[in-house]
Amino acid sequence: MLPPPPRIHIESLSVEELQEGYVFHILTDSLQQETANKLNNLARELSIIYPCEIIIHTADSTHFRNLKQWNKIFTHDEKPYAAYYRLCMAQFLPDNLKRCLYLDVDMLVVGDVRELFAIDLKNNIAGVVFDPGIIGTDFIRLTAKNHADNDIVFSDSSYFNSGFMLINLIEWRQQNIEKQLVSLCDTYDSQMRDQDFLNCVIGDNTLKLPLKWNIMITWTLGVFPIENSRFSTQDFEAALKDAKIYHLTWITKPWQNFTQCLKYDYTIIGESPQRDLWWQMAEQTPIFKDELQYIRLKLKNKELQDYADALANRLHHKLHVIDSQISTLQRRLNRIAYPHKTIIKKLRQLFKKIIC
Question: For residue 52, how far is the Cα from the chain centroid?
Fold first, then answer.
């Protein structure tokens, strides 16, 4: 089990630190009043330890509803458009704010993020961490929705994971990044959704930060082979020794059953030290700890059923793939059995091109 991060005691803080504090901005499209009240109470409780404020912003998802959703198999997200809200985050933040730290909801912070705000971003739009799964030797394609337009192809040599972004709001606003991003959303499709759009617009104008600030733990659990990563085994080992932020991505989230996520051989990925640490910290969270403890108990009681459901879904998908492969083979066999039909079809297509 990983040790919890050191606690901060308000008595040990300097005058500057007491004036500093944290301001958390939550982007959502809906929030029950009961939950909003609990968050306000949470801010008061946390302020006893360290100055803290929580501000809730309601975003309009209408503009993003025609865009591709993140696959729930990988995100387990009941708000599949929520990730797009980061594209327009600047409009919710105070105009005099010079920088902000964006974090996905599945991040576990175990280090002092104040270190980040001492980094000189210069004229870079953001400080980011390379995406381990994009090795930097290929190209990313944005597909034009209008077939009359050309696709956009750009190098993935600067490709970063957008779950962590230390954003230079001055440059973001001056260069109208939000307008550029929304324009791309309107006219192009992408494989990695908003992450591809962000990389297309700002990828080459980012400061790359060490892996320890965004450790995607699937690479440390053997879910993906390290040899397919941009980083080496030594890189991950060094990052884990000085970890600042874990990214619980491509697996089930701590608030969902670990039995729902299977490897390619249908075995369970299993628990992780970071997942245990998340729950260790969650169960100490003021205001919400009783509710969270109840959720954990419910998960424990559903482990076997969730595994059965996940296995059934995976096998159903596998059967679909096999059926598709069989259909492809049948078509190829038909071409071999009746070659004259294929030849006649090709000749007709060629003749049409000639006369046109």
Answer: 25
In sign, the C-alpha dihedral spanning 29, 32, 33, 34 is negative
The span from the CA of 17 to the CA of 31, in Å, is 31
The structure's pTM equals 0.82
Residue labelled with tokens 């697996």: 251
The angle subtended at Cα 309 by Cα 303 and Cα 310, nearest 5°, is: 85
Q: How far apart are CA 149 and CA 332, in angstroms?
A: 34
Cβ atoms of residues 100 and 117 within 8 Å: no
313: Cβ contacts below 8 Å, ≥ 6 apart: 73
The Cβ of residue 54 has, within 10 Å, a number of other Cβ atoms equal to 18
Q: How far apart are CA 182 and CA 160, in angstroms?
A: 19
Tokens (6 digits) for 328 = 């492809």
Report the side by side order of strands in the sheet with 152-155: 152-155, 139-144, 188-189
Per-residue pLDDT of the chain (356 residues; tens, 9 = 90+): 555 555 555 555 566 555 678 999 999 888 999 999 999 999 999 999 889 999 999 988 777 777 766 554 444 455 567 788 889 999 999 999 999 999 999 999 999 999 999 999 999 999 999 999 888 778 889 999 988 899 999 988 999 999 999 999 999 999 999 999 999 988 998 888 889 999 999 999 999 999 999 999 888 887 788 888 999 999 999 999 999 999 998 778 888 888 888 777 778 877 788 999 999 999 999 999 999 999 999 999 999 999 899 899 888 888 888 888 888 888 877 777 666 666 777 777 776 776 66
